Amino acid sequence: MFRPRGRKMNTSATAADHDYEHVFLISDELEEVEFRSVDAALEQAAGNACHRFTIFNGGYLRVSSETAGQVSRDYWINLAFLDPQPFRHWSATWSTASGISAVAALIAIALPHGSFGTSPDAYLSAAAWLAVIASLVFLCVVVTRFFGEYLFLSLHGRAPVFQISSNRPDRRQVKAFLDHLRGAAGKARAGQWDSPGSYLRDEMKEHRRLQNAGVLNEAQFQAARRLILRAHD
């Protein structure tokens, strides 16, 4: 019985393409799924945005996103082709905020020992220490936010397929949902393919379907395609 390989950390491989004429990517051959039963669900709201994650039919994940003033997104993922172990999502916004707050904290700490520390005006010294406290508190908030997102990738293609907050509505509910997700992904991969060729065919189709759904762009699909071919070489 063929079993898919484990996770690969390298997301920038550029393996040469191979001849796989038996792998068909025609749109009318892509998988279609009828929604029958809900196994687990998680809803995350932040500001004017709401994201819903639903594990259904024992081996699929539905991702729904609604943001005020924007077009809603709704797509599903076959968990057999998902790496259930996420990576921390590095947000450019929060990484910039983290750097700014760290610099502000260092400046605020230095101020009491500089001009404010030698000033006869006690109010200035108190203000400097308040700046220290405020900067450190903000830094803690930024660090929490900075490491508060999980990014999930496809198993062999290493393509980003969805991200989820680690603390909304709370960490306990997120952990319970992710535990269920890992179990469902493991069951979805177990014993469904007789050969590497059949798994390769379906994995390629899944990535093509995600591209058609707008989850992946052309560059992400082509990068995933090369990694998938290398994984099955």
Describe the structure.
- The chain has 233 residues and is α+β, with helices and mostly antiparallel strands.
- It has 2 domains: 34-88 and 150-231, no CATH class; 92-146.
- The protein is 42% helix and 19% strand.
- It contains 6 helices and 7 strands.
- The chain has helices at residues 92-110, 115-118, 122-146, 171-189, 196-212, 218-231; strands at 38-46, 49-56, 60-67, 73-78, 87-88, 149-153, 160-165.
- The strands form 2 sheets. The protein has a 4-stranded antiparallel beta sheet, with helices on one face. Strands 5-6-7 form a 3-stranded antiparallel beta sheet, with no helix packed on it.
- A hairpin with a 3-residue loop joins β2 (49-56) and β3 (60-67).
- The radius of gyration is 23 Å and the shape is elongated.
- Residues 6-24 and 114-118 have low confidence and may be disordered.
What would you say about this model in short?
The protein has 233 residues and is of the alpha+beta class.
Topology pattern, helix = H, strand = E: EEEEEHHHEEHHH
Main sheet summary = 4 strands, antiparallel
Spans of at least 5 consecutive residues with low confidence: 6-24, 114-118
User: How many separate domains?
Assistant: 2
What is the mean pLDDT?
78
Number of helices: 6
The largest beta-sheet arranges its strands as 1-2-3-4
> For the CA atoms, what is the radius of gyration?
23 Å
In percent, how helical is the residue content? 40-55%
Kindly name the structural category.
Answer: alpha+beta
- Give the overall silhouette: elongated
Oligomer: single chain
Ends distance: 17 Å
How many individual β-strands? 7
Strand content: 15-25%
